[in-house]
Amino acid sequence: MPKVLLVILIIIGSIIALWLLIIFATLIILAIYNHQIKRNRMSINIILAQKYDVAGVLAKFLLNNQVELPEEIINEFNLMGKSNFSYFNTFERKSIGTRINEIINELTTLSKDNKFEDNPRYQTLKNSIEDVEKQYKHVILVYNNKVGDYNYWIRFIPFRLVSKIFNIKTKKTINEK
Known about the structure:
Layout: H1 3-64, H2 71-77, H3 90-95, H4 97-113, H5 120-155, H6 157-165
């Protein structure tokens, strides 16, 4: 076999090996980010569940202290029908994420109007709401960063072609106020 042909085969083999390495690296990087994004989505669901639970406890506290709650909130938590309100599953909680914030704001306003600010139980609930809100904002920030990293790798020049070949789409960030 002539040396020129051998050199050409080695060069072509090296290019193919490099291309396969790029494809493999791209798929591994994207799989890692995809896994992290899924974990962060689960964390968001857990935080939303905690926000919902704290809002329900605050509503129950107000109801036990003879504060008249709007019918909408009583129905939301089924507070009158049961001594302990029933919890929604994670998917239902996620779909009402913005509603949870509205309920918390309304309950907080009712608490202030009824002068519970000095009540130790109310203070504990208020601190719990603030802690959960901080956690929620942190989880959203981490999620958006991972999505940004994932989208960067999809658009990164050596990996862009691989992303197009495998029809890998960008992911959307969560826009929070």
